TrEMBL record, chain A:
This is Centromere protein L. Keywords: Centromere, Chromosome, Nucleus. It comes from Danionella cerebrum. It is found in: Chromosome, Centromere; Nucleus. Its main location: nucleus. GO terms for cellular component: chromosome, centromeric region; nucleus. It comes from the Eukaryota. The keyword Nucleus applies. It holds the Pfam family CENP-L.
UniProtKB/TrEMBL annotation, chain B:
Its main location: nucleus. GO terms for cellular component: chromosome, centromeric region; nucleus. The keyword Ribonucleoprotein does not apply. This is Centromere protein M. It comes from the Eukaryota. PANTHER family: CENTROMERE PROTEIN M. It is found in: Chromosome, Centromere; Nucleus. Keywords: Centromere, Chromosome, Nucleus. InterPro entries: Centromere_Cenp-M (IPR020987), P-loop_NTPase (IPR027417).
Length: 350, 186
C-alpha cells in the first residue's frame, strides 16, 4: 500500500504490513487507490486456512452459569460497528438508561425518569473469560426482564437476552481503532423483534453504533460443517444434518443426515492427521462438501450444488443461513465464536 | 480431444455467429430472441448449448463461431462448475477475444460475493471480459443483448473502425487487483 506523505502518523499513512494472509477487499470492482480515503483503516479478508477446532474446557475460565445462559437459546446474529465511549465499568448506569429508554418508547408521550422502577428491568453483565486474545474486549451480556408494576416480586420473567462479543478478532484491525472505540462486532439476540429494535436504537443513540444483519453464506456453513465433523473423535457429534433447497418445480427441500462416523471418515481421508499442522484449508472444506454432494448424486441423481445450503446442524450446534445459530456444547464455543467474529468483522462496512 | 477452434472455418458473408452456453438453459433463449430482434444490419446466428464439447455430428454443418458466451448463474455452484469444465474444451486461440462471461444474479450481494470473485478470477486468468446481466426484466435482457452484439460485431470483424477482437479484449478483459491475484496464486 502506498505511503502518503503526511505529517501526522494516521493509520492510513502507516504502511500496512504484508503478512502471509494478504489483505484485499473483495468487492465487485477492482479497488483503486482513489477511493481509499483516510477513513479507511484497514481492509479485511477472510482467511483461507483456519486452525482446527480445539476442544477447550472453558468452565475453568468462564462461570458455568454464564455458559449455561449462552447455550440454551437460539440466537439471531448481527454485526455491530465499534462502540464509542463504551466503558465496561459503567454497566449499571447503562442498564438503568436502557430500561428507562424502553419504558419511554413503549409509552410514548409520558415522561419517564431514569432510575424509576417501571415495567422493565435490564441487567448488563460482563462474561469474563470468553475473550481470547488481549486485544479482545470482554463479552457483555444483556438481559431484559419484564416486571409488571402490580405483580408479586417473583413474577419477573426474562423476555429478551442479548450478548456482544469479540473472540480472536483481527488484532491489527482492533489495534488500529482510535482509542475511544471498543469493538464488539458480534451481537446475538433472542427475544421479540420489537425489543431488539429498541435495544439497537438505544445503542445507536448512546454509542453511535450501527447494526446489520449477518446472514451466513454457504461458505461459512461449509466451514462449520467441516469444523464440527472434525470434532467427532473427541466429542460425539451424533449426526450431521444438512438442509438444502433446490429451486425446481416444485421447490425441493432436502434434508441430508449423515452418520457421524461416516462423515468423520470422509473428513479424515481429506484432512489426514499426518498432514495436519492443525490448519484446515479452504480446499479441504470444499473437497469435503464435494464428497457429500457426489455421494448424494450417486444415489438420487440430484446435483446438490445447483441448490442452496440452508442449515447445518450437529449436536455441537446448528447454524441457519438467516443468521440464526444455536450452540450445543460449550467445549468448542471458542472456535465457533472466532469464526463468527471474523465473519462479522468482514461483513461490517468499514 | 477435439477442441473448438476459432479459425478452422471460413466465415460467411455478412454473418456473425454467437454461441451461448448455459447450464440452466433459461436465459439463453430470451437472450437469443433479443439478439436476433435487435440486429438489422447483418445476419446473426445464435447457437445454444448446455455445455462443451459440442456434439460431433454437427461439426461439418456448424458455421464458424465468432463469439462464445458462458452464462453463469451466481446462485448455483453447479453453473460455475459446468462452465469451468467446458473451458477445457476450447482451443487456446479462442481466448484471444472470442470468449466472454455473462453472470446473472450478481445483485444478491451476500449470497454471491465469493462466487463472483471466483468467476472474476477465472475470467482474468483467461483474459476475458465479465458482463453482469439482469435477466428477470425484458429491459435487462435487451441491455445484455446489445452489449453482446457490440462484442460480436468486433469479433466477427464487422466493426467499422477496424477494431480487432484481440484489441478489444485487451480493453475489456477482467482484471483483478494485485492483492486478490496474489491470494489466488498462493
Amino acid at each position: 500500500m502506498e505511503e502518503r506523505g503526511c505529517a501526522v502518523d494516521t493509520p492510513a499513512s502507516r504502511p500496512v504490513a504484508r503478512k502471509n494472509k494478504s489483505y484485499g477487499r473483495s468487492c465487485v470492482e477492482a479497488p483503486s487507490y482513489f477511493w481509499q480515503t483516510p477513513g479507511q483503516l484497514t481492509v479485511l479478508k477472510l482467511p483461507t486456512t483456519r486452525g482446527a477446532a480445539k476442544s477447550q474446557i472453558i468452565t475453568d475460565k468462564v462461570d458455568p452459569e454464564h455458559i449455561a445462559l449462552l447455550l440454551r437459546n437460539e440466537w439471531k446474529l448481527s454485526y455491530v460497528t465499534p462502540l464509542h465511549c463504551f466503558r465496561h465499568n459503567q454497566l449499571s448506569s447503562y442498564a438503568k438508561h436502557l430500561s428507562s429508554f424502553i419504558v419511554a418508547e413503549k409509552q410514548q408521550g409520558v415522561a419517564v425518569e431514569v432510575g424509576m422502577d417501571a415495567g422493565f428491568k435490564v441487567t448488563f453483565t460482563t462474561v469474563p473469560g470468553l475473550a481470547e486474545s488481549d486485544v479482545d474486549a470482554e463479552t457483555v451480556f444483556i438481559q431484559i426482564q419484564s416486571k409488571p408494576v402490580f405483580a408479586a416480586a417473583d413474577a419477573v420473567k426474562v423476555v429478551w437476552r442479548g450478548w456482544l462479543t469479540c473472540v480472536n478478532g483481527d488484532p491489527e484491525y482492533l489495534r488500529s481503532l482510535p482509542a475511544d472505540f471498543v469493538s464488539l462486532p458480534l451481537f446475538f439476540t433472542n427475544g421479540p423483534e420489537s425489543l431488539t429494535t429498541l435495544v439497537k436504537s438505544w445503542f445507536g443513540r448512546t454509542f453511535d453504533a450501527n447494526f446489520g444483519s449477518l446472514p451466513l453464506n454457504s461458505s461459512t456453513l461449509n466451514w462449520l460443517a467441516a469444523l464440527w465433523t472434525g470434532c467427532h473423535p473427541t466429542c460425539n457429534i451424533r449426526y450431521l444434518k444438512l438442509a438444502w433447497r433446490l429451486q425446481s418445480q416444485p421447490v425441493l427441500d432436502i434434508s441430508y443426515t449423515v452418520n457421524p462416523q461416516d462423515a468423520w471418515e470422509l473428513w479424515n481421508s481429506i484432512h489426514t492427521p499426518e498432514s495436519a499442522d492443525d490448519q484446515i484449508g479452504e480446499k479441504e472444506v470444499q473437497a469435503f462438501m464435494n464428497g457429500l454432494e457426489t455421494h448424494f448424486f450417486r444415489h438420487f441423481k440430484i446435483h446438490l450444488s445447483a441448490g442452496r445450503l440452508l442449515t447445518v446442524s450437529t449436536s455441537l450446534g446448528s447454524a441457519h443461513h438467516d443468521g440464526k445459530i444455536k450452540i450445543g456444547n460449550s467445549e468448542y464455543i471458542t472456535t465457533l465464536l472466532t469464526l463468527l467474529t471474523e465473519y462479522a468483522l468482514f461483513k461490517m462496512p468499514t | 480431444m477435439a477442441l473448438l477452434t476459432p479459425f478452422s472455418k471460413v466465415p460467411e458473408v455478412n454473418t456473425a455467429t454467437v454461441l451461448l452456453i448455459e447450464n440452466e438453459e433459461e436465459l439463453q433463449v430470451k437472450l437469443a430472441n433479443s439478439i436476433v430482434q435487435h440486429e438489422k444490419d447483418f445476419n446473426v446466428n445464435v447457437r445454444l448449448a448446455k455445455k462443451l464439447p459440442l456434439p460431433v455430428e454437427n461439426k461439418e454443418a456448424r458455421p464458424r463461431l465468432d463469439l462464445i458466451v458462458f452464462i453463469i448463474n451466481l446462485l448455483s455452484e453447479r453453473s460455475f462448475q459446468s462452465a469451468e469444465t467446458s473451458l477445457a474444451h476450447l482451443h487456446s486461440d479462442c481466448f484471444l477475444g472470442k470468449v466472454c462471461f455473462l453472470v446473472t444474479n450478481a445483485r444478491c450481494g451476500s449470497l454471491t460475493q465469493e462466487r463472483l470473485l471466483s468467476v472474476r478470477r477465472l475470467a482474468s486468468s483467461h483474459q476475458c471480459p465479465v458482463l453482469c446481466s439482469e435477466h428477470r426484466t425484458a429491459d435487462g435482457v435487451q441491455a445484455s443483448a446489445m452489449r453482446l452484439l457490440t462484442l460480436l460485431k468486433v469479433s466477427a470483424g464487422m466493426s467499422p473502425l477496424s477494431t480487432t477482437a484481440l484489441f478489444l479484449s485487451s480493453l475489456t478483459r477482467c482484471s483483478l487487483s494485485s492483492d486478490l491475484e496474489e491470494d489466488f496464486l498462493q
